[in-house]
Amino acid sequence: MRYVLLICDDEKDAPSNEELAADPVHRAWEADLRRRGAEIVGVRLRPVVDATTVTVRQGETLVSDGPFAETKDFVGGVVIVDCANLDEAIEIAAGHPYARRGGVEIRPVWE
Length: 111
Fold this sequence. Notes:
CATH superfamily: Dimeric alpha+beta barrel
Helix content: 25-40%
Shape: globular
CATH architecture: 2-Layer Sandwich
Radius of gyration: 16 Å
């Protein structure tokens, strides 16, 4: 079954790409995904200041800079994994470094 892991954290505490690449906990998590053959795709998202939100109301398209909702936590990345079941997805999510300081939301993919 496929799951999307939404990697969430407080944006002001997010490490740089260089810090993330040098983090042994993050590298170990990536190695575990490779060992399992679970990762389908994983990407890190740019900060919310680079976001554009599109809404359509009564036929009018509205475009605004930034996120739609004001929130402290943000989705900093997504990882799509293919797992045997939710228990394995939980195991993978629990191993992500952001699970220790932010959170990892798991959502099943409609199949």
